[in-house]
Amino acid sequence: MPLKPSKYNFFYRTGSGGAVLFNSSSGAALAMDRPATGAVVALLQQPERFDLDGSNFLRVRELLASRAFLVPEDLDETDVVRKRHKARQAENRGLALTVAVTKACNFRCVYCYQDHPEDQMNKATAETLLRFAAARLSQGTALYVTWFGGEPLLNMDIIEFLGARLRELCQARNCAYDAFMITNGYRLTPPMLERLLRLGISDFQITLDGDQKDHDRQRPLANGHGTYGIVMRNLVAAAAKASSINVRINLTRRNVDGAAALVERLRELQKAAPAVSISLGRVDQCSAHCGLGPDDLLEGAEFSHWEETLLGPNAAGEPAALPIPFDTVCVAERLNTYVVGPGGDLYKCWNSLGRPEDLIGTLDGSVCEETSAWMRFEASDDDQCGTCKYLPVCQGGCPDTQIRSDRQTKDCTKLRYTLKRRLIDWAGTKAERAKPERRFC
Predict the structure, then answer these.
(1) Going by DSSP bridges, is the β-strand pair 70-72/95-100 parallel, antiparallel, or unpaired?
(2) Which pLDDT belongs to residue 284?
(3) For residue 83, is pLDDT > 90?
(4) What angle do CA 9, 84, 58 make, to 5 degrees?
(5) CA–CA gap between residue 164 and residue 200 (Å, rounded)
(6) Listed residue (195, 308, 198, 190) closest to 251, CA to CA
(7) Distance of CA 27 to the CA centre of its chain
(8) What is residue 286's DSSP assignment?
(9) DSSP bridge pairs for 134
(10) Which strand (E) or helix (H) includes residue 339?
(11) What are phi and psi of 353, to 5 degrees?
């Protein structure tokens, strides 16, 4: 069968005449010395040439084809990526609920995309949510619950009511139950943590935005007072008992210096509490409520620079980690995933919470999930994304960013700025990856 070089190949020279070859669709990589590089380059330029040593030619050609560096001449590779994306969207691995039990919040973060009415989910809405979940949770699958707000711990009574009954539903259906909470941490006191642990909620995300000065400027209480001291104290106490705590640092041009001091302190905490991890978030203006301007926000290349500076060159994975292809970038693109507002309104994306134009239904009414913009989103339909070599390891980035901007704004992968260095680092390990484990997020 005639072969051609894959459009998703990345080739970089390393030291001493060697090279590294990576395919973003298969996830395969080859680290090559000088002789191997010469043979591979020749085959990539002319896959059908037979003037090399016969046995060596066939061996190298088969190797390149087995890792999708060479593909059938008539293969539409973009269509392959598109079909994988659609298949992943349609899979039913259970039910995923992001439950905003309140829109109220005790913080007034300068970049927050929400307004904060005193909306609270009540027991009647919670009971309707239980019926909604029971109708959509298939036997033997899994229920994934993210407790969200506003600040979810402002409505702990409903979390306890719902959490206990959702676990009972999972037990009755032989389903796994996975619970996670996004909280500002201010109310995550030791007694509160014990209540959450009894509900099976042991994984958390807490945001700290640098040292005390920077954090308190970006994430004050509604009355203007600082929050750093209490959040840090609660984090240190929770780190000893929680299964995992991801400390997210929302990075802007205002707080990069303070973020460095915070990372240093968190690294010390990690020595005693390995459950703690650190991640950086890039702030953007996803709503009119954001109080920061363009001059405050980091561009993609700047953010990648600071991520490597603050967390190290392999912040996204283990040392010299290879990028791994994935078929969807966000749960909002998948069937049977919902964001539930306090009043029972339904959305696909948590950025949509409170946007009437983004409603897909209500808990006790009709639901138009499959026709939503998020389920119709296909990165390869865009001229720029569809021809991009990074598509299989990016999938267009955040769908909401493209949807809100009518595809004029792209949340491009940071691999644009880091891939060459990562591959050369990996090649230095002299490792070879033949059949990578696929990652789904």
Answers:
(1) unpaired
(2) 82
(3) yes
(4) 40
(5) 9
(6) 308
(7) 18
(8) -
(9) none
(10) strand 337-340
(11) -50, 120
What domains are defined for the chain? 3-75 (3.90.930.70), 95-325 (3.20.20.70)
Of the candidates 47, 49, 8, 56, the one whose C-alpha atom is nearest the C-alpha of residue 29 is 8
Query: How many other C-beta atoms can be found within 10 angstroms of the C-beta atom of residue 209?
Result: 28
**How is residue 52 annotated by DSSP?**
S
pTM given for the model: 0.89
C-alpha closest to that of 420 among 19, 130, 113: 19
Q: How confident is the model at residue 54 (pLDDT cuts 50, 70, 90)?
A: low
Identify whether 18 is preceded by a cis peptide bond (ω within 30 of 0). no
**The two structure tokens encoding residue 83:** 């079909």
One-letter amino acid at 353 equals L
pLDDT at residue 437 tops 60: no
Q: Is the per-residue pLDDT at 123 higher than 90? A: yes
Q: How big is the chain, counted in residues?
A: 441
Task: Give the separation between CA 379 and CA 396, rounded to whole angstroms.
Answer: 5
The answer for residues whose C-beta is within 8 angstroms of residue 192's C-beta and 6 or more apart is 153, 156
Averaged pLDDT, 364-371? 91
User: Reduced to 3 states, what is the DSSP secondary structure of residue 124?
Assistant: helix
Tokens of 39: 């043979």
Structure tokens of 369? 């999930």
345/356 Cα distance (integer angstroms): 9
Please state whether 354 falls in left (phi above 0), alpha (psi between -120 and 50) or beta. left
Q: Computed from CA positions of residues 44, 48, 54, 60, in that sequence, does the dihedral angle turn out positive or negative?
A: positive
- For residue 383, how far is the Cα from the chain centroid? 24
pLDDT reading at 171 higher than 80: yes
What's the CA angle centered on 20, arms 17 and 25, to 5 degrees?
Answer: 155
DSSP for 361-417, please give it. EETTS-B--TTSHHHH--GGGSHHHHT-TTGGGTTTS-HHHHHHTTTSS----THHH
How distant, in Å, are the alpha carbons of 188, 232, 255 from that of 239? Answer: 11, 10, 24
The region that residue 190 occupies, defined by phi over 0 for left and psi between -120 and 50 for alpha, beta otherwise, is alpha
Q: Give DSSP secondary structure letters for 138-197.
A: -TTSEEEEEEESS-GGGGHHHHHHHHHHHHHHHHHHT-EEEEEEEE-STT--HHHHHHHH
According to the per-residue pLDDT averaged within each range, which of 9-18, 170-179, 313-322 is highest? 170-179
Residue 289 has pLDDT above 70, yes or no: no
Determine contact, residues 370/376, Cβ cutoff 8 Å.
Answer: no
Please answer whether residues 351 and 113 qualify as being in contact, where contact means their C-beta atoms are separated by less than 8 angstroms: yes
